Amino acid sequence: SLSAGLDLPGRFLFATLTLMTLIAILVFIEEAVYIYRKIPSSKRSIIIWINAAAPVISTTSCIGMWVPRSTMFTDFTAGIFFAIVIHKFLMMMIKECGGQKMLLRRFENGRFTISTGPCCCCCLCLPRVPITRQTLFWLKLGTFQFAVFRPVLIFLSIVLWTNGNYVLYNVSPKGPALWISCFIGALTLFALWAVGIMFRKVRILLKCKNIIPKFALYQFIVILNHLQTTIINIFATQKIIPCAPPLSSTARGSYIAQQLLIMEMFLITVISRVVYRRKYHDLEPPECAAEEPGDKKQTP
């Protein structure tokens, strides 16, 4: 077994990372109880979902670290959960503006800047889109499609994997892994683009709601959970990360990615507790509603 093959430093590392995961879970549970007691029901579930992203990723990484054969299932579970969180984050920004009706009233004559990352940050010639119910619908659809289609594609991948047709690190055009990964990547970019468009519009209005540090934490989770893991896996498949018997290069790369994620998600869980709790003591939605006339006048 894995634990039997570990030396003393290895066992100490595994024990430390497991303890960090348990602490992250306890911090989240305490924060969820606080949110349940203090936050209005209209925002409660959304904020709990967003706060759960880091502890869930930490937990799945810890399980994958201890049970190597479960890595594919744990990675897919984390991917499905975070796809839902991206949609929840967009909905949270709308809720913090007072809901869709209040957002449309605040930005009655405003426009969305769609030349933003990660899809169109270089396309400065793109027109600015009026803020209407239809454009809000398309933004919500941009994140909702990711929350729906990514679980479907991941389920398809698991079915093909159990049948031996899906090999995660096989980048051959003849294999399904490359095409499924490319399709998921495209869906991810569209979802992140929708969130970026909304954030760029409401970041000044919601500065009183700590939206900038919240968005920064959300971005860190995206980068660490997707980009960092992808880079490590590429290094492992190209043998840049050497094998260390009994672990192959890909297995060792997976271990490194999981261990880094546990430490990073632990820090994000602790910081999220501070950022999300601070807002509820200081500010309430009526305070922003009182600023509404001024906001309308300043809207170009």
Q: Helix count? A: 10
Strand order of the largest sheet: 1-2
**Backbone shape:** globular
What percentage of the residues does DSSP assign to strands (E)? under 5%
Membrane topology: Multi-pass membrane protein
Keywords: Membrane, Transmembrane, Transmembrane helix
InterPro entries: Ostalpha/TMEM184C
Subcellular location: Membrane
Describe this structure in words.
- With 300 residues, the chain is mainly alpha-helical.
- Helices cover 74% and strands 1% of the residues.
- It contains 10 helices and 2 strands.
Helix-strand blueprint:
Elements: H1 8-38, H2 41-66, H3 71-96, H4 100-106, E1 111-112, E2 129-130, H5 133-162, H6 176-202, H7 211-237, H8 249-282, H9 285-290, H10 292-298
Antiparallel strand pairs: 1-2
Helix pairs in contact: 1-2, 1-8, 2-3, 2-8, 3-5, 3-6, 5-6, 7-8
Keywords:
two-stranded antiparallel ribbon, globular, 74% helix, 1% strand, 300 residues, mainly alpha, disordered C terminus
What's the short version?
With 300 residues, this protein is an all-alpha fold. It is built from ten helices and two strands, in the order ααααββαααααα. The longest helix has 34 residues, at 249-282.
